[in-house]
Amino acid sequence: MELVVKHMPTINRAIQAIHERTFFAQYPEHPSPKIYGEDADKNGRKTFQSLVGKKFEELLQGNSDQWIGDEESPYMQEPLNISYPAFSSEELLSNADTAFHQWRKVKADLRAAILVESLDRVKNRFFEIAYATMHTTGQGYMMAFQASGPHAADRALEAIAMGYEELTRFPESVVWDKPMGKYNLKLAKEWRAVPKGISVVIGCSTFPTWNSVPGMYASLVTGNPVIIKPHPGAILPIAIFVAELQKVLKEEGLNPAICQLGVDSFSNMITKELAEDDRVKLIDYTGNSTFGNYLEGLKGKFVFTEKTGVNSAILDSVVDIDKVIGNLAFSLSLYSGQMCTAPQNFYIPASGIKTPDGVVSFDEFAQKFADNIQGLVNNPKAGPFVLGAIQNKNTCSRVDDFGAGKGKVWLESTQVENPMFENARTATPLVLEVDAKNEDSFSQELFGPIALLIKTENTTQSVALAKEMAIKHGAISCGAYTTDSEIKEMIADEMSLAATPVSFNLTGGIYVNQHAGFSDFHVTGGNPAGNASFTNPEYVIKRFTWVGFREPLK
Amino acid sequence: MELVVKHMPTINRAIQAIHERTFFAQYPEHPSPKIYGEDADKNGRKTFQSLVGKKFEELLQGNSDQWIGDEESPYMQEPLNISYPAFSSEELLSNADTAFHQWRKVKADLRAAILVESLDRVKNRFFEIAYATMHTTGQGYMMAFQASGPHAADRALEAIAMGYEELTRFPESVVWDKPMGKYNLKLAKEWRAVPKGISVVIGCSTFPTWNSVPGMYASLVTGNPVIIKPHPGAILPIAIFVAELQKVLKEEGLNPAICQLGVDSFSNMITKELAEDDRVKLIDYTGNSTFGNYLEGLKGKFVFTEKTGVNSAILDSVVDIDKVIGNLAFSLSLYSGQMCTAPQNFYIPASGIKTPDGVVSFDEFAQKFADNIQGLVNNPKAGPFVLGAIQNKNTCSRVDDFGAGKGKVWLESTQVENPMFENARTATPLVLEVDAKNEDSFSQELFGPIALLIKTENTTQSVALAKEMAIKHGAISCGAYTTDSEIKEMIADEMSLAATPVSFNLTGGIYVNQHAGFSDFHVTGGNPAGNASFTNPEYVIKRFTWVGFREPLK
Are B537 and A536 in contact (CB < 8 Å)? Predict the structure, then answer.
């Protein structure tokens, strides 16, 4: 119970933050030596380098005679040659099933405390995780540090806190005392939050911890054993989380198989075997819609998905067009558009964008936007670090193939040189003009650095199209610019019906791409971009069942 | 806002009751003249009688040139000849769609207050609803009063309160204030609970209000317009609820189509047309598993079901065998086993049931059980009123056809005379012995007065079978009798994994059939008996989506 005493204040503070919904960060996001220690960065890089080319031997989930690993660095375009112990689906499931009956009987407060302890230990490895993330996902250093380290840990804490609150929302037991006239009928009643069963968390290649730890920790805090099935291309960052948790579990005398890493390879994926097994009740998934829809259709499972979407930017009227363009250009370029929140469809009225200094025409906007992106990506002190590298070769092909015949090209995609990694796989944004009439050309997610400038009749049509795309194809973000309060309310109301969050009039150092833990619900769950949300109450409640027991009072 | 001031204390008290989970009743369950007035019963009966044979003209949902109605009294086996205005699915959906955009903009507190006001008005019609329920469902008078009146209204209030709590769980807006080192980044953030869309509530023939009002009020409080599609055989009780709500809506200047009654006939059911329409996002359903599974499989809907189950009684050891048998005989006979919570499979060890006075053998138990039932049903002052009448002829056929060749018949089903209704359709319990080896014979719900006494090897097998039935075929209740605390915990733990609530050692005036509002979660949602629960947080949360908006602070 030492851990409970140690961590309950953090859990309670996190619950408070969930309800306050203003800024809260348990794990500092700045990679400052003052916070993390003078040598933390250097040591993290060294540790990462020492892992390359070796067996990852930290896991406490038994011996395996098969060691596999397909990870490649998008910065070096070379294999990392890190190998992980492989287990059959049956081994993983059978171990999880055994661990289930131990874990479900651990009290909620101890479960929560063990999980927070694991995050505190991961904190000591944020820099190592940052380099692991760079060299699997292609993210720039700063994003790799923040997203995979502190922001992921905060999202995990949020899931723990929300789960703990729900688990303790109703009394464990009461005396039910009903007046019957001449006597009182008294029953001793008791309720248990019964976990659903084995949980499988399926990772993605671009955000291997940020997108996986919410489901992992939500399932664990509610008593379910977890099998993490990472993307074969991005294993190491989440492997470190799992290893640290397994160590805490072992120290507490518990079975480390409560959370296992189930690694597979591109040539022999085990995801479907796991997902379809009857023992698996919970599935968390981030990735393409085809596989996400297949998972959502499985019978007898509770499935939490983040799939693809068509995000929009709606331009109506602005105070300062240059600041707006600067903001949008950065949003699009950040990690080369490989974020689920990156804007893709830019809706601009044919009549232009209203400003205090007169109307900015469609063409003027397009030219300024293209120029601004070029300025950013060609700035050797900013471009390569903002863009990062391209995780998947197919993304480059998509960018190369997309433009032809679709409309006027305002900016060609090209490559930039990375001063540290000469072999980095890069692609700068492609900016293309399409007409609102050609719906086919903008009715799908074009993952990567592709922006479509869509010429509409007016803002009403812009909003109608953004809403329609979100309802039909999903959307995770929408950036809207208007100085008119009526139009603002119209946009909010219409996009709310498409369950799409809207960021209004962002300029400066805040971007539509960023969804903050404890405040922004990431993915709403209300449109085809995904059926779940980090972290709303539904995200944890569906992982257990309230079951009641009663007996006449003795 | 007068209504808000009037009803917010009740809503807050109901929220408190949900969290305390001990006895709470807003609507008194005793049909006492002291509570409801000297003439309430007499007037209620008269009003009901005055409705028979006429058009039901209270609804405020426009004119119809088609009036239909198939209700028949199980007590008289004659049509009631009450007719209701019929509307096409398209008319209902189009009206609901219009009403949606008004209702979703009404503030949560006013929505909740309007709904509570409707319940307070329904309170004045509890007796009329009781007679309407008797003469559509066949319930006895006392159950008809309690279940369709006060208990239903309490369940409705519970759904309103739970919904209101969730809607107000997070702040409407905050200033998000993030320290950035040299400055603070400030965003004005706002969240809206966006209702999903049109809700269709599909009623059943046995509990036309109790099973429908939770979904109806849960959808309404969260801002969704509702179409009630009652069972063609049991319309009047819920029609009165709808009519009273429509009057309040109209008085508040709102569109009464926010809640419509969508009546159909046995020969022309509109349920599928409604359920499959794209505009319908929420479906609540009580009824058979075949149709329930079809609804659960519809894409793009949030479906809340209560289907069928195989409820169990597990007999291990008791203090007083006669009291136990009296309790179980009553549970089985109540409304002739036509309750979703009625016990069906009685698991008894071949070695008998342990008591302080020695072991009661299987045969001894069976004989005492049969005798006790016979004593109850043949008692002219109790039997007819406890049994009520059989809603559906098919239930009688099932009882008639089931026994043959399955095992030893300990008690034949027969009919009883009802002193008030000579033509009442009745059936007393059939009690049959089957061996635990013949799983096929007890692996399905046998809706109606059928009890199977299953001879098991021991209590461990009894529990294993009860658990297996619940996992495979669903279960809504389990009654267990044991004086051994280890066995009790084993039963609780095993049945919890089958998401089945357990009532231990009930004797006297409390029965396994009864699930109290504000305390017992009715149906857990964790086994095939249904995917929803009255009223856990999930039941309301899935009816809306949290969507956030943000903008730099001015």
Answer: no
- Residues A300 and A153 both lie in one domain: yes
* Interface contact A489, partner B, CB < 8 A: no
- pLDDT for B47 equals 98
B320 at the A interface (CB within 8 A)? no
Residues in chain B: 554
Say whether A176 and B516 touch across the interface (CB within 8 A). Answer: yes
Which residues in chain B have Cβ-Cβ distances shorter than 8 Å to A187?
Answer: 510
pLDDT digits (tens, 9 = 90+) for A504-514: 999 999 999 99
Q: Do B23 and A542 touch (CB under 8 A)?
A: no
> Do the beta carbons of residue A524 and residue A499 sit within 8 Å?
yes
> From CA A371, how far away is CA B377, in angstroms rounded?
89
Which pLDDT does position B1 carry in this prediction? 79
Domain span holding position B231: 2-51+88-307+532-552
pLDDT means per 10 residues, chain B with 554 residues, are: 96 98 97 96 98 98 94 98 98 98 98 98 98 98 98 98 98 97 95 98 98 98 98 98 98 98 97 98 97 96 96 98 98 97 97 98 98 97 96 93 85 96 97 93 93 98 98 98 98 98 96 97 97 98 98 93
Domain check: are B181 and B132 in the same one? Answer: yes
Measured between alpha carbons, how far is residue B550 from residues A332, A488, B187 in Å? Answer: 19, 11, 6
- Report B:19-58 residues touching A (Cβ under 8 A): 19-23, 30
Give chain A positions within 8 Å (CB) of B485: none
> Closest-CA residue in chain B for A554?
B505
Residues of chain A with C-beta less than 8 angstroms from the C-beta of B504: 549-551
At residue A1, the pLDDT reads 79
- Specify if A523 maps to a domain: no
Strand B312-315 to B478-481 pairing:
parallel
The string of pLDDT tens digits covering residues A27-60 is: 999 999 999 999 999 999 999 999 999 999 999 9
Q: Does B549 touch chain A (CB under 8 A)?
A: yes
Domain CATH number, residue A441: 3.40.309.10
CB distance from A437 to chain B under 8 Å?
Answer: no
Residue B32, in any domain of the structure: yes
- Would you say residue A511 lies in a domain? no
**Chain A window 190-249: which residues touch B at a Cβ cutoff of 8 Å?**
191-192, 194, 196
How far from the centroid of its chain's Cα atoms is residue B332's Cα?
18
Which tokens go with A65?
């005679």
Does A492 sit within 8 Å of B21, measured CB to CB? no
The pLDDT score that the predictor gives to residue B406 is: 82
Q: Which residues of B touch A545 (CB under 8 A)?
A: 499, 524-526
pLDDT (tens digit, 9 = 90+) per residue, A154-199? 999 999 999 999 999 999 999 999 999 899 999 999 999 999 999 9
One domain, residues B300 and B390: no
CATH of the domain at B11: 3.40.605.10
Mean pLDDT of all residues in A401-409: 84
Measured CA to CA, the distance from residue A128 to residue A40 in angstroms comes to 9
- The DSSP result for B505-554, as a single string, is S--SS--TT---TTTSPBS-SSBTTBS--BT-HHHHHTTEEEEEEEEE--
Domain contains B77: no
* Secondary-structure breakdown of chain A: helix, strand, coil percentages, each rounded to the nearest 5: 40, 20, 40
Q: Are B427 and B461 contained in the same domain?
A: yes
The predicted-structure confidence for A344-363, as pLDDT tens digits, reads as follows 999 999 999 999 999 999 99
Distance from CA of A81 to the nearest CA of B (A): 39
Distance CA A126, CA A121 (A): 9
Distance, C-alpha B364 to centroid of its chain: 35
Helices (H), B104-259: 108-123, 126-137, 141-146, 152-167, 213-221, 236-251
Q: How far apart are CA A225 and CA A259, in angstroms?
A: 6
